[in-house]
Amino acid sequence: MSEGFRFFTSAPLESPAGHVASDLESLKAGIATVSPESIFQHVTRMPVRFPHARDLPENDFARWVGDALQLPEVSERLAFAGTMPAASLEEVRAALLAVLNRVPERDRKRSASEGASFEFLEARNVLADLGIEAADPAQVVEIWPQLDDAATFLHLVEAPIFGRTEYALIPWLRARGARGLADSAAKAVAAGPPVARLHRVIGTKWRRSMIGRRLVDRIDAAEEVRLREARETMTRLAEKLKGEGRA
Amino acid sequence: MSAAPEGLSTTGAATTGVLPARSGWLERYARVVGAETLRALEALARKMKGHRIVMVNTTKTGGGVAEILHRVVVILNELGIPTTWEVMEGDAGFFGVTKRMHNALHGHVIPLTEEDREIYRERTRIEAKRLALDGDLIMIHDPQPAALIDLRRRPGQYWIWRCHIDLSRRDEAYWEFVRPAVEQYDAAIFSHVQFVPPLSVPAILVPPSIDPFAEKNREMEEEEVESIVERLGLEPHGPWVTQISRFDRIKDPIGVLEAFRLVRARRPAKLLLAGGGASDDPEGAEVLAEVREKAKDVEDVEILELPPQSDAEINALQRMSTVVLQKSLREGFALTVSEALWKRRAVVASAVGGIPLQILDERTGLLVRSIEGTAFQTVRLLDNPELRRELGAEGRIHVRDNFLHTREVRDYLAVFARVVGKGPV
């Protein structure tokens, strides 16, 4: 096993999955049979498709049932079934099907108007090496701000879901004894926020968690070095506060 | 003739190297989309090191495809992938056939004659001898140059067909004429899933995108907006409700007038219907005349026929709008919506074609399905500046993340990686 953790970005290639739904029965048939990459596209990828959303939209199935079939109750249930960011795609598929199996007979007859059918897509990602490698968990914290949204999503959500352990960051951190960093990242992932917020939250938590360690490291540093670093920190804080004031 | 975007030779002179220093457009884009996004784009570009791209279309100026290519070719070169742009030439006969082909593939019923077929084949033969298709990745844009693959594909090349048009209502006779060529490609790219016809080659979806630095979208000071608005003879103080779109029945300008009549009965506001398409299209002129007639019965309505190349005017009109409408009955992708969102405008639009990809209801704008719905949501926005501000802010971010040229370049790089066997992994 390589000692370092290498960071990649990913670019999605979306294509038709070969199934079209016009009512709940055909939606159910589609969800039951499409590839895991299709469930991934319509449910799990929402946080990276809308990375900076203040409020993440419901998954595609829930939105379509609400908008095109005008079935708000079913839509709500599908939305909730899709909010399991760390769940396997088969678990997500089962949860969605369980909702559709409970729909009363009268609602199953509702069909979408012409041109409003649901076209299943699937996404397969092309990975590209960012040319950045962390030798240890502390370097991951330093490197973290350089990652784009797709890289963040790949290493925290996508890789574990598709069993690509070589790209999964949290197990790598655990294996190197950084349990605190791994736990805080796992907790943030489980909340399922848009990926830009996920990136920010984890970065902040990790930096804070390193304060104690940095202080310990600095005990042996010369007084003038500590004073200089303290001045630099205060300058950065002042700049940040000024910036916030302007905004 | 070979066409090259500003600052590049037609022979593909390009920056090369593994990690090109960011310059020119990449640097400008980095300020909009962030350094991390640019770093990701550079990583994808490194994957394509050693390859050479040739883009082919039929015009260097005018039209959305040429606009996109002008910028995308520069960006690819700045990323270190030598990319050239070849333009297929033709005479009036050829462009007559391709214009009919374009309209027929959009759903107009037009007979395809044997003479048309022969004109198309003959021009393809002539251009196949002339064009410099010397890259290993050839991206052919739209149906006009599609048949070049019959005559010019050589071993080691990968050919990709990029279809920018909506084929959902295609005339089957024309499509069957083009399809055998398309099915020789390694992949076909479409803007929206509804536009994909049955095909034996992989179909990939790449939505179109806008250029934030183009005249139509660039930042504009309030004084400039006011001066353009004044020059157009419009009252600068609104509130203005606008639909800036071709005078075409599918854009439903009459429906817009009906909706505005309902709005005007409840709130003081002005409506502007502005667009082109009336001077070179008999049906457009007919629609414009009908709209003018109908508008006589509605208070506070202005109608403007915009000539081609009115990009600065469109920019200013969108920026002066309190509410932007796109009340189409059906649509292709409708990038006018992204253009308005980029300017932080509050948009009310029909849930058709590519619009729901741009408007996430109640998040980046408001989706409607009826005249009354359009009136209701317009009044709601006129009354609520905070909601307008929130939707506009979220809309701009959504466009930045999904509908700028950098995202289209990223998708093309991923397609190239896939066809040459470097992904997906």
Overview features:
A: 247 residues; alpha+beta; 2 strands; 14% strand; B: 425 residues; alpha/beta; six-stranded parallel sheet; 16 helices; 45% helix; disordered N terminus
Largest sheet of chain B: 7 strands, mixed
Oligomer: heterodimer
Distance between the termini of chain A: 47 Å
Content-based structural category of chain B: alpha/beta
Proportion of helical residues of chain B: 40-55%
Reported for the largest beta sheet of chain A, the result is:
2 strands, antiparallel
Strand content of chain A: 5-15%
Total beta-strand segments of chain A:
2
Largest interface: A-B, 35 and 42 residues
Order of helices and strands of chain A: EHHHHHHHEHHHHHHH
Mean pLDDT of chain B: 90
Number of strands of chain B: 13
- For the biggest β-sheet of chain A, the strand order reads 1-2
Distance between the termini of chain B: 39 Å
Element order, helices and strands of chain B? EHHEHEHHEHEHEEHEHEHEHEHEHEHHH
How is this structure best summarized?
The complex is a heterodimer of chains A (247) and B (425). Chain A is α+β, with helices and mostly antiparallel strands and 247 residues long.
